[in-house]
Amino acid sequence: MFKAKVLIKRRPSILDPQGVAVEKGAQHLGISNIKNTRIGKLIEFDVDLTDRTAAEKEVNDYCSKLLSNPIMEDYEFTLSEWIPSGEEVK
Amino acid sequence: MSLKFGVVVFPGSNCDHDAYYALRKILNYDVEFLWHKENDLKQSNVILLPGGFSYGDYLRTGAIARFSPIMNSVINFANKGGIVIGICNGFQILLEAGLLPGVMIRNNSLKFVCKDVYLSVENRDTIFTSEISSDKKVVKIPIAHGEGNYFANPELLKELEENQQIIFRYSDAEGNVTENDNPNGSQLNIAGIVNKNGNVLGMMPHPERACDPTLGKTDGTLIFKSIANYILN
Predict the structure, then answer these.
(1) Closest to A66 (Cβ–Cβ): which among B63, B109, B110?
(2) Predicted ipTM?
(3) Which pTM does this prediction carry?
(4) What is the CATH number of domain B4-232?
(5) Residue B31 region, left (φ>0) first, then alpha (ψ -120 to 50), else beta?
């Protein structure tokens, strides 16, 4: 079993209206040294496989076909192996 | 040939009944609902993907609806030249399904915008606009969306322009396309596009909400009448 953490980021060339608005909020708060705020997504899930290569393929499929839209987003992920008792192997 | 509209119903669609009402009660066309879990298009020869918030807009607008069973049939239908119109959330689903190019992002104002807008009709030589006479510069149709900011890379925008795939642009009442009349930040004021073959239209404005004369505007009927004329003649 693996725990996957997927980070989805909007491509740098694509405007992020949310990031712009949130950064304005920071300025209103007096937090004035913030630049280039970009909002993405963190998605976590388990992969019920024992082979790492197979797990990576499964996650790539999930990310490229559903979790991200390749036209406007890039993704990266980490996989950590664990046994269902909760103990992390590596 | 007979004319029959199929209106797809996703969980979270909320303009499906408006579309049905406009097509059946105002325009007197044959129309049937198509539940998203079905595969059968029930002999429809026009498929309408309605507005709403399919699957709660989770992940990205239209991202999950695109994998509903009915969408396989809709994609096959479109690839064989079948006529498909996606309105608002339906447009977003068509983008996610790859039936139309580009993506939709949050309005640059971050506000949900709900109002009547004028659309400059950029191409009348299409299945969807042939009934809009050339002396009519604009159509008046309402929008209601939070994510209608059309984005495409410069190469794609150039291609859309060259192929005359841009059908509607946000404009003033005279048809002048200005930044002031852009309600959401869409590139080139794009409000509606067709695919290269011209059989799939996506538009953010809601023509079904501009059909009943009681509501004071009927320009939406011109789009449905154009489709009907194409099929019947």
Answers:
(1) B63
(2) 0.76
(3) 0.91
(4) 3.40.50.880
(5) beta
